[in-house]
C-alpha cells in the first residue's frame, strides 16, 4: 500500500501518516512524498497512491484553502481524519546571529507571526512548499533558519535554537485521509437512499452516532433570505451536532460561497439520511465527501 503525503521527509504530514499507520496497524506501507498539497491530493486520482493524507485546518490559522477547493473540484472520498499537535521550532545550522532569512510553509510562518515580529523584525520571510522543505534548505545555507518540527531538525542535522515558537501553546492541525471515489462511497450510498433501495456501507456494527462524522459541501445558487438558516434548521430539528461550518468563495463572483459542513453521525444512520434528503430539496448542489470515524486523541 502506498500513502501519499507532503514531503520531503520530516514534514508534519509525515507525522499524520505515521499516526494513521499505527492506528490501523498497517504493515508493508510505503510513503510517497509530493512537492505540494495539490500533488499529494491528486495522487489518489492519478493512482500514484492508494490513500493520501493532507492538512485541512489548523487551530491558529484556520482552513487550508487549497484542500477545500480540491475537495469541491475532485471526486474523492474522505475515509478518516488525524489530528497532529504542532510544535514549531526555530532551526538552523549556525547561531541566531547569522540568521537573515527565515523559511517555512505559509501555515508555519503564519502560526509564528508574533514570534517573528518580536524577535526577527529584520529577517526576510520566505515561504516554501512544506516545513521540512524549509529545514532541508536551512541545512544548506548558514544564513537561513527554518520553522519546522524537532523531527525535521534531526532529519537535516540542524540545531533547535528555540522550541515551541508558535503564537499559542495549543496548536493542532487536522488532516484528512482520502481515496479516489469508487464503489460504495458515501455519495453513492446517498444516491441509493434517494432511490429508496437498500444500501450497503463499510460502517462497523454497533457504533454510536458521535463516533462518526460526515462531511458535505452545500451550494445555494440563488441567494435568498434564510437559505442557510433552513439548512442549519434541518440539522437542529433532528438534533444533529455540527462540528464545523466553513464558507469558501465559489470563485464565480464576489459574495458567492460554498459551505463546508461537518456533523456527527454516519450516512447509514436513518436520521442522517432523512436530514440529507431534506437538505437536498433546499439546495442546488449537495456533495457528500464521506462518513468516517471521528479522531480520538
Ligand atoms: O509543511 C508541513 O510540514 C505540512 O505538513 C503542512 C502543514 C499545513 O499545510 O498546515 C501542516 C501542519 C502545520 O500546520 C504546517 C504546515
TrEMBL record:
<keyword id="KW-0057">Aromatic amino acid biosynthesis</keyword>
<feature type="domain" description="Prephenate dehydratase">
    <location>
        <begin position="2"/>
        <end position="180"/>
    </location>
</feature>
<dbReference type="GO" id="GO:0004664">
    <property type="term" value="F:prephenate dehydratase activity"/>
</dbReference>
<dbReference type="GO" id="GO:0009094">
    <property type="term" value="P:L-phenylalanine biosynthetic process"/>
</dbReference>
<protein>
    <recommendedName>
        <fullName>prephenate dehydratase</fullName>
        <ecNumber>4.2.1.51</ecNumber>
    </recommendedName>
</protein>
<dbReference type="InterPro" id="IPR018528">
    <property type="entry name" value="Preph_deHydtase_CS"/>
</dbReference>
<dbReference type="GO" id="GO:0005737">
    <property type="term" value="C:cytoplasm"/>
</dbReference>
<keyword id="KW-0584">Phenylalanine biosynthesis</keyword>
<dbReference type="Pfam" id="PF00800">
    <property type="entry name" value="PDT"/>
</dbReference>
<dbReference type="InterPro" id="IPR001086">
    <property type="entry name" value="Preph_deHydtase"/>
</dbReference>
<keyword id="KW-0028">Amino-acid biosynthesis</keyword>
<dbReference type="InterPro" id="IPR008242">
    <property type="entry name" value="Chor_mutase/pphenate_deHydtase"/>
</dbReference>
<dbReference type="Pfam" id="PF01842">
    <property type="entry name" value="ACT"/>
</dbReference>
<dbReference type="InterPro" id="IPR045865">
    <property type="entry name" value="ACT-like_dom_sf"/>
</dbReference>
<keyword id="KW-0456">Lyase</keyword>
<dbReference type="InterPro" id="IPR002912">
    <property type="entry name" value="ACT_dom"/>
</dbReference>
<comment type="pathway">
    <text>Amino-acid biosynthesis; L-phenylalanine biosynthesis; phenylpyruvate from prephenate: step 1/1.</text>
</comment>
<feature type="domain" description="ACT">
    <location>
        <begin position="216"/>
        <end position="293"/>
    </location>
</feature>
Amino acid at each position: 500500500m502506498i500513502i501519499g503525503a507532503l514531503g520531503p521527509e520530516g514534514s508534519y504530514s509525515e507525522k499524520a501518516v505515521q499516526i494513521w499507520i499505527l492506528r490501523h496497524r498497517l504493515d508493508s506501507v510505503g510513503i510517497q512524498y509530493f512537492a505540494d498539497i495539490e500533488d499529494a491530493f491528486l495522487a489518489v486520482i492519478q493512482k500514484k497512491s492508494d490513500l493520501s493524507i493532507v492538512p485541512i485546518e489548523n487551530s491558529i490559522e484556520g482552513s487550508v484553502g487549497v484542500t477545500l477547493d480540491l475537495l469541491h473540484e475532485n471526486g474523492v472520498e474522505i475515509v478518516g481524519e488525524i489530528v497532529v499537535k504542532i510544535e514549531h521550532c526555530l532551526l538552523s545550522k549556525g547561531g541566531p546571529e547569522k540568521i537573515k532569512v527565515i523559511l517555512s510553509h505559509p501555515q508555519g510562518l503564519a502560526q509564528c507571526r508574533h514570534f517573528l515580529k518580536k524577535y526577527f523584525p529584520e529577517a526576510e520571510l520566505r515561504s516554501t512548499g512544506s516545513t521540512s522543505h524549509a529545514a532541508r534548505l536551512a541545512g544548506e545555507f548558514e544564513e537561513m533558519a527554518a520553522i519546522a518540527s524537532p523531527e525535521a531538525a534531526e532529519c537535516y542535522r540542524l540545531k533547535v535554537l528555540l522550541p515551541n515558537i508558535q503564537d499559542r501553546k495549543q496548536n493542532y492541525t487536522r488532516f484528512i485521509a482520502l481515496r479516489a471515489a469508487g464503489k460504495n462511497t458515501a455519495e453513492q450510498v446517498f444516491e441509493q437512499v434517494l432511490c429508496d433501495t437498500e444500501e450497503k456501507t463499510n460502517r462497523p456494527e454497533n457504533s454510536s452516532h458521535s463516533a462518526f462524522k460526515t462531511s458535505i459541501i452545500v451550494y445555494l445558487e440563488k441567494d435568498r433570505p434564510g437559505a442557510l438558516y433552513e439548512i442549519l434548521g434541518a440539522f437542529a430539528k433532528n438534533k444533529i451536532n455540527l462540528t464545523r461550518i466553513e464558507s469558501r468563495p465559489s470563485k464565480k463572483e464576489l459574495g458567492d460561497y460554498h459551505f463546508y459542513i461537518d456533523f456527527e453521525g454516519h450516512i447509514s444512520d436513518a436520521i442522517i439520511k432523512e436530514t440529507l434528503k431534506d437538505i437536498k430539496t433546499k439546495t442546488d448542489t449537495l456533495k457528500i465527501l464521506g462518513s468516517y470515524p471521528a479522531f480520538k486523541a
